[in-house]
Design goal:
Elements lengths: L6 H66 L6 H16 L5 H18 L14 H64 L2 H4 L4
Length: about 200
């Protein structure tokens, strides 16, 4: 002889199913948000930090070559080609996501490289302009300090982005565990509502 659930039990079953549906939907939306955050931070670590480290390395090499030119009074490579490469690197640097402090240091760096380009090669200077040697070396040293500051920012920001990713992963893991727990509770509740003994269901014949 079959049994039917009472109206109250049907309402409870519907409520449990609705809770399960919204739980799965809400969890999915939260998971997507956290995965999106992780994807963005990983992309930012590569595009805005790792690549910038490479830009800084290349700019430091250009400064080293310029320093050698000053000390040895000889040209190393094609100056026009090198200046063009520096411009490309600075333009690529400018397109990355800069923090407030980083933007300030980068603006200073642009001005410093612009100022460095205004100096003529020492090999082309007359004896009366030999005193500019110390000025150029001082300018190069100042530019290197700006690169050092920018490099420190890359390290700090990389660490910050890594922490954000790890936090999102931890929250996502915690929510997944909670979701499993709630699903188990809901499953047990559904089982008790549907399959509990007939004498407690007050069946309708």
């Amino acid at each position: 002889m079959g049994t039917k659930l009472t109206l109250k039990q049907r309402i409870l079953v519907g409520f449990v199913l609705a809770v399960a549906f919204f739980l799965v939907l809400g969890s999915n939306l939260v998971d997507r948000r956290h995965f999106s955050t992780i994807q963005k931070t990983i992309a930012s670590i590569h595009d805005d930090r790792v690549m910038v480290q490479d830009y800084i390395y290349q700019l430091r090499n250009f400064l080293h070559d310029r320093e050698v030119e000053v000390l040895k009074k000889e040209n190393i490579g094609n100056r026009n080609e090198r200046d063009g490469q520096i411009t490309v690197i600075l333009n690529n640097f400018a397109e990355t996501e800069l923090t407030r402090d980083e933007a300030a240091f980068f603006k200073r760096l642009q001005q410093q490289f612009s100022g460095l380009g205004s100096y003529n090669s020492l090999s082309e200077q007359s004896e009366s302009q030999e005193g500019d040697k110390s000025k150029i070396l001082e300018h190069i040293h100042s530019t290197k300090k700006t690169l050092d500051a920018l490099e420190e920012i890359q390290i700090e920001e990389s660490g910050h982005l890594t922490q954000v990713s790890e936090k999102s992963l931890s929250v996502n893991k915690m929510l997944s565990n909670l979701e499993i727990g709630f699903i188990i509770i809901i499953g047990v509740s559904m089982f008790m509502l549907v399959f509990q003994p007939i004498k407690t269901l007050y069946p309708i014949h």
